[in-house]
Structure formats: C-alpha cells, structure tokens
C-alpha cells in the first residue's frame, strides 16, 4: 500500500517499558493501514531496547532514540514532520502508557475517511469517559479545557487530548517548524491552528484509562506554560492575528 494511503502514529516514550509492547502490538493489529514511529528520549528503563527488539522483522515499526529528555512538543514536531516528508496521508499522536486504547485507532481513521481534517479521541463529548482518575486530575483536565474555550472561543471539547489523527494536507498548512510549545500545550496549539485554518475537526468519543505503570509527566511547569500560552493565543485570536508567526 502506498504511503499516501497510510497513517503514521507518533509515540513519544520516556520510561514506558512496562506498557510499550502491548501498545505497539495493539496498534499494529488494529489496522494494516497504520505504521508506528517511537521517539524515545534515552529512557533509563531501556524502553528503546525493547522497541528495537520488536522492530526486528516488523517494517511497520520504527524507532528514533534521542540523547535525553527534549520535550513532548519537539518529539511530535519531529515525528509529524517525518510523516509529511515520507508522504503519509495522515499522521497521529498517541500516548505510550495504554491510556489510549489501540482498538480505537480504526475509529480515528474512519473519521478522516468521512471527511474530517483532524480526528480527536475525545473524553468530553457524548460517549467519552475517563476511567481511574482521581477527582483532582479530572477537575484539572476539565478546567483546562474550559479555560481554553473561554480564552480563545475554540469550540473543541477536548482540546488537550493527546490521541488524535491529522490529515497530512492539514499538517502541511500548520507550519510545524514555528510551533513553540514544548509541553502539553503543544496539543492545544495545534488544535487552535487547525481551527483558525478552517479545518473540519471531528471529536470521536473514547474511554481514557489512567496509566497502571510509571508516572505522569504532567508537572507544575507544564501547567504554567499552558496557562501563559493559552492567554497569549486568546489575545491573538481575538484580534484576528494568526498563531503562526
């Protein structure tokens, strides 16, 4: 199958050895239209070693190992850019900790097949839910999305979702090289750019499951970055200015 008919899912990793094998096997089994690129930031738990073992004899799986922790945003910029350079028809994002169900991958593909430019695996539309989160995490997430909507006017219910699939033609218009966000605000920035570009954004209801292994990468610095950046984007959007500079 030509790459223009395929999708590349980008999976950043840092100390995800406990979950990476079932995640990768699940994604590759979910659709024969999907390839996976793992970008590992020199995980001390040897996540990359296990991925390299799984990639032997599996042409649909590839691995890039970076020299250290360089941030979620830079991993996605690199991976999504590689998808465009390789001629994929679509490129997606997915967490490595099994919080996103690989069985939902075909539903994102179907949304693009039906005409969406961006399909988001959403926790906050009818049918979406979160399993296993403590109350404070739930309210932080809901509050973050409410803040994005209030500051920018963007109607997407789950702008912070990390499970999504972009049509390549849309990604090419979003000027990835100019995206400055390095934390989870990267997700918000690309949603806002897609919305400002007039893209069709479909939210596909999914169940998000709290990780069973490892530790969340969400820290205070990540939250503060998002708060500051969203305020700035809201200011630009209200004045009709493009987010891309």
Question: Describe it for me?
Answer:
The chain is α/β, with parallel strands linked by helices. 41% of the residues lie in helices and 18% in strands. The protein has 8 helices and 9 strands. It has helices spanning 17-30, 47-55, 72-85, 105-113, 135-152, 168-173, 185-196, 220-238, and strands spanning 7-13, 34-40, 61-65, 90-93, 118-122, 129-131, 164-167, 201-205, 207-209. It has a 7-stranded mixed beta sheet with strand order 3-2-1-4-7-5-8, with helices on both faces. It has a two-stranded parallel ribbon with strand order 6-9. Helix 1 (17-30) packs parallel to helix 2 (47-55), helix 5 packs parallel to helix 8 and helix 7 (185-196) runs parallel beside helix 8 (220-238). The longest helix has 19 residues, at 220-238.
Q: Spell out the helices and strands N to C.
A: EHEHEHEHEEHEHHEEH
Question: By helix and strand content, what is the structural category?
Answer: alpha/beta
Distance between the ends: 37 Å
Overall strand count: 9
- Measured by DSSP, the beta-strand proportion falls in 15-25%
Mean pLDDT metric: 92
């Amino acid at each position: 199958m030509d790459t223009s008919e395929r999708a590349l899912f980008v999976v950043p990793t840092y100390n995800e050895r406990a979950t990476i094998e079932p995640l990768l096997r699940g994604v590759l089994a979910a659709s024969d239209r999907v390839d996976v690129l793992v970008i590992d930031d020199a995980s001390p738990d040897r996540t990359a070693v296990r991925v390299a073992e799984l990639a032997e004899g599996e042409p649909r799986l590839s691995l890039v190992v970076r020299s250290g922790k360089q941030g979620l945003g830079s991993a996605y910029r690199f991976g999504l850019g590689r998808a465009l350079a390789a001629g994929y028809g679509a490129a997606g994002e997915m967490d490595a900790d099994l919080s996103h169900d690989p069985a939902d991958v075909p539903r994102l593909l179907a949304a693009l097949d039906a005409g969406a430019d961006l399909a988001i695996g959403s926790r906050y539309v009818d049918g979406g839910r979160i399993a296993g989160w403590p109350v404070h995490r739930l309210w932080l997430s809901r509050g973050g999305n409410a803040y994005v909507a209030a500051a920018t006017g963007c109607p997407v219910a789950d702008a912070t979702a990390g499970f999504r699939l972009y049509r390549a033609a849309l990604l090419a218009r979003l000027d990835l090289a100019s995206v400055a966000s390095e934390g989870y605000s990267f997700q918000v920035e690309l949603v806002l750019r897609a919305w400002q570009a007039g893209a069709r954004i479909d939210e596909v209801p999914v169940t998000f499951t709290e990780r069973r292994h490892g530790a969340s990468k969400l820290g205070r610095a990540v939250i503060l970055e998002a708060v500051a950046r969203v305020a700035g984007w809201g200011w630009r959007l209200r004045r009709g200015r493009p987010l891309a500079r």
